[in-house]
Amino acid sequence: MIKSIFLSFVLLCSLISFAQDDLLNMLEEEVKEETTSEKVTATFKGTKLINANTIETTKKKTLAFNITHRFGDMQIGEPIGYHTYYGLDNASNIRFGFEYGLTDKISIGFGRSKIQEHYDWNLKYRFLEQKAGGMPISAAYYTNIAITAVAKIKDDAFVNRLSYVHQLIIASKLNNSISLEILPTLVHRNLVDQRNIHPTNGSVDKNDLFALGLAGRFKVTKRMAFVVDYFYTFSEFRDSRNNFYDALGLGIEIETGGHVFMINVTNSAGIIENDFLPYTNSAWDKGEYKLGFNISRVFSF
């Protein structure tokens, strides 16, 4: 069993990511910032960690094509784990997305997810930059609008298919080995089903959902880093007694030349905030975590 899982990890690592071509330039910038008072760069290696957005934006006149894949629940130790090859036979979610840099600080994007057949449009604006020996943080504003294209929806009104995200990203590169960020987030859904009542406290779902995300990157060698992100939702309706759980992701990032290889495990099937914040129904302690990876290719114009 262990050998099979290990083999799967190795095979996946060989497939993951034609990551950003300018990675080596980013590494050179890391060395430069140690000896200057210029802005701090390469706080993270991409615009997305596991579930969390990062402070990074796509560079000006650059188009990034991203594929994010989540397999099914691994269910280690359970019969279902063996029959689905620990989730590798199933695809719980896939998202194809594009990001384009209008400037070095402003990027726009579009994506399509399998879950809820979501089409999303997003914008990220990095309005504050960390400076070596000066400003200790960077900050960005992220927002999106998502439209679900599922066949049936209540009242079948277009407005009921919309949801929105507003997020503040505050990050700091403490040194060349540790980067941290905090992400206060608001998700608004035009349609919620308030007929469902919490079995214990009697609460119902609400259109607005507040959450707080925490994320970090910890370099363990020159070319390898450990990444983690976690989101806590502020909702009486969404707790484990009602089969809702906070999204937690763990991953390993490996840099080899001009490529980044990242493999992650998370209990969230959702990829965009509109999905994983309101609808994470999987628990780590039940073996309901999923293997995932990202593929990214950058094109300069």
Structural write-up:
The chain is mostly beta strands and 301 residues long. It has a single domain (2-300), classed as monomeric porin ompg (Porin). 11% of the residues lie in helices and 43% in strands. It is built from four helices and twelve strands, in the order ααβαββββββββββαβ. The protein has helices at residues 2-15, 23-33, 79-83, 273-276; strands spanning 62-73, 91-101, 106-113, 118-128, 138-148, 162-173, 178-189, 208-219, 224-234, 247-256, 259-266, 290-300. The chain has a twelve-stranded antiparallel beta barrel with strand order 1-2-3-4-5-6-7-8-9-10-11-12. Strand 3 (106-113) and strand 4 (118-128) form a beta hairpin. The chain starts with a helix and ends with a strand. Residues 1-24 and 31-35 have low confidence and may be disordered.
